[in-house]
Write a structure and sequence with these properties.
The protein is about 35% helix and about 30% strand. It is an alpha+beta fold and about 180 residues long. It has two domains: about 110 residues, PH-domain like; about 50 residues. A hairpin with a 4-residue loop joins strand 4 and strand 5.
């Protein structure tokens, strides 16, 4: 293997082998997280303005319920986006050192590679996963951790993920085969 070999490169991210036991994966978050980050400040600002208008008695009190719905939706959306963002980011999997370093939007953390249970390639859920021809449906390249957490390293059809799966299998990482 070359010193730096690109194993996966598509619109959903890249995976580069930087050595026999080092993998660098870049899997940015999706469109939904971006939309929530754009919607949330608007909803909170609009809620504050509506509350002020109701407080000044320039609008009837029931309109305050709209502001509460906006605030609730914004809070729930932010929580879901933050939870999803913890699955994405830039990962440096160094099996020689025994660590996984994740850099995401607004956070960085180091995980113990011994907590890695297996790698899996499940079909992407929803319309995207059902729309493709059998065998070409998009799949996630996931790392399952002992604490139940999943990290998304990349996405693509099974044949595109194969070089990464082979690399991880040869490095001694258990691979869970997903059919269908």
């Amino acid at each position: 293997m070359e010193e730096r070999e690109v194993l996966l490169n598509n619109e959903a991210g890249t995976v580069v082998a930087e050595g026999p036991l080092v993998l660098v994966c870049d899997c940015p978050g999706g469109f939904a997280e971006t939309m929530v980050k754009l919607y949330a400040p608007f909803a909170l600002l609009a809620s504050i303005l509506v509350s002020i208008i109701v407080g000044l008695r320039a609008a009837p009190f029931p309109i305050l319920f709209i502001a509460m719905v906006w605030t609730t939706a914004s809070t729930i959306g932010n929580a879901l986006a933050r939870r999803s963002a913890r699955k994405h980011g830039r990962f440096r999997i160094d099996l020689e050192r025994g660590e996984i370093v994740q850099e995401g939007q607004g956070f960085s953390r180091t995980l113990d590679a011994r907590a890695l249970v297996h790698v899996a390639t499940p079909v992407v859920a929803g319309v995207e996963g059902n729309a493709a021809e059998p065998g070409f449906e998009p799949r996630w390249l996931l790392i399952a951790m002992k604490n139940g957490e999943e990290l998304r390293l990349g996405k693509g059809p099974a044949h595109a993920l194969r070089p990464v799966v082979v690399f991880l299998r040869e490095a001694g990482v258990p691979v869970q085969v997903n059919r269908g």
